[in-house]
Amino acid sequence: MLEKIKTMYNPTPGMPPEKIGPTVGQNIGKISLPSTTLHFFDLGGQRDIRSIWPKYYDECHAVVFVLDACDQARLSETWEVFDEVLNSPRLLNLPLLLLANKQDNPTSLSVAEIRESFDAWQRARANREAENEEATNKDKGKGKAKEIVNNAEGVSGEVEETQPHDDGGAKDERMASLDVMGASALEGTGVRDAVNWLYIRVQNARKM
Ligand SMILES: Nc1nc2c(ncn2[C@@H]2O[C@H](COP(=O)(O)OP(=O)(O)OP(=O)(O)O)[C@@H](O)[C@H]2O)c(=O)[nH]1
Ligand SMILES: [Mg+2]
Questions:
Q1: Is 31 a domain residue?
Q2: pLDDT, tens digit, for every residue of 146-160?
Q3: Which end of the chain, N or C, is less packed with Cβ atoms under 10 Å?
Q4: What atom in ligand 1 is closest to the CA of residue 185?
Q5: Alpha-carbon distance 208 to 61, whole Å?
Q6: Other residues' Cβ atoms within 10 Å of the Cβ of residue 188
Q7: What pLDDT score was predicted for residue 157?
Q8: 22 lines ligand 1 (CB under 6 A)
Q9: Which of 3, 51, 102, 181 to mutate to test ligand 1, by most ligand atoms within 8 A of the CB atom?
Q10: Is 177 domain-assigned?
Q11: What pLDDT score does 155 carry?
Q12: What is the reported pLDDT for 72?
């Protein structure tokens, strides 16, 4: 994605896709826009490399999380990593863009589907946590006399308790304003929109 950005904005093009290998560590790049220079740090996404991400958190003014919208098998892992980024205290007040890459591929999930997938993952996690809490509470109640109530039809009544997951206000706000966009680093679609998103956010941050 960074190489495509360089190719689209700089006089000297970035590396062509066929020459790009997995990012070990970081790649850097910059582009000049009217009255602003954007400096990019492209951090590798492999598991071992993720531990270096926090080293950059204090220096950056915005975060773009690029995900492979074709790799449905790894979406759950993606959401775990993304959720950690989303909740990093040092990033909480920075603009965050979720960029669904590979939109050129017919099998890629759309922006709406990506949003829905993350929502579903969050709901599933909240349910798991509620169940764990219930199990813990039940454990605590062991030994006490229990009254088992069955309804007349003999159907065990399942009470669905929707326990609100308390993440604190900042996270709720973050979720409500989460920006998700689609792009293709291969074809360049959506790349200008993403760069404009960054440009506007960084300009706005300066004015504050
Ligand atoms: N179809 C399609 N393939 C892409 C696109 N972007 C990257 N790829 C391919 O996906 C594979 C991985 O690309 P990388 O650029 O290494 O992905 P990355 O996210 O930078 O991976 P790390 O550097 O390991 O974090 C390569 O085979 C790319 O050619 C895209 O927009 N569309
Ligand atoms: Mg890379």
A1: yes
A2: 554 454 454 444 444
A3: C
A4: 31
A5: 13
A6: 14
A7: 46
A8: yes
A9: 102
A10: yes
A11: 47
A12: 96
pLDDT recorded at residue 208: 61
Tokens linked to 93:
């007040």
Task: Answer for the pair 100, 79: CB distance below 8 angstroms, yes or no.
Answer: no
**CATH number of residue 89's parent domain:** 3.40.50.300
Q: Which domain holds residue 83?
A: 2-123+171-207
Number of domains in the chain: 1
**Binding-site residues for GTP:** 45, 101-104
- For the Cβ of 46 lying below 6 angstroms from any atom of ligand 1, the answer is yes
Ligand 1 pocket, mutate which of 7, 20, 108, 184 (most atoms under 8 A from CB): 20
Q: How remote is the CA of residue 36 from the centroid of ligand 1, in Å?
A: 28
Question: 185 CB under 6 A from ligand 1?
Answer: yes
Going by alpha carbons, the residue nearest to atom 16 of ligand 1 is: 22
Q: Which regions of the chain are under pLDDT 50?
A: 148-149, 151-152, 154-162
Instruction: Supply the pLDDT for residue 173.
Output: 80
CA of 104 to the centre of ligand 1 (A): 12
Q: Which amino acid does the sequence have at 122?
A: Q
Six-digit token string for 135:
């199990």
The pLDDT value recorded for residue 159 is: 46
Structural domain includes residue 86: yes
Residue 67 belongs to some domain of the structure: yes
Q: CA torsion, points 85, 87, 91, 94, in degrees to nearest 10?
A: 100
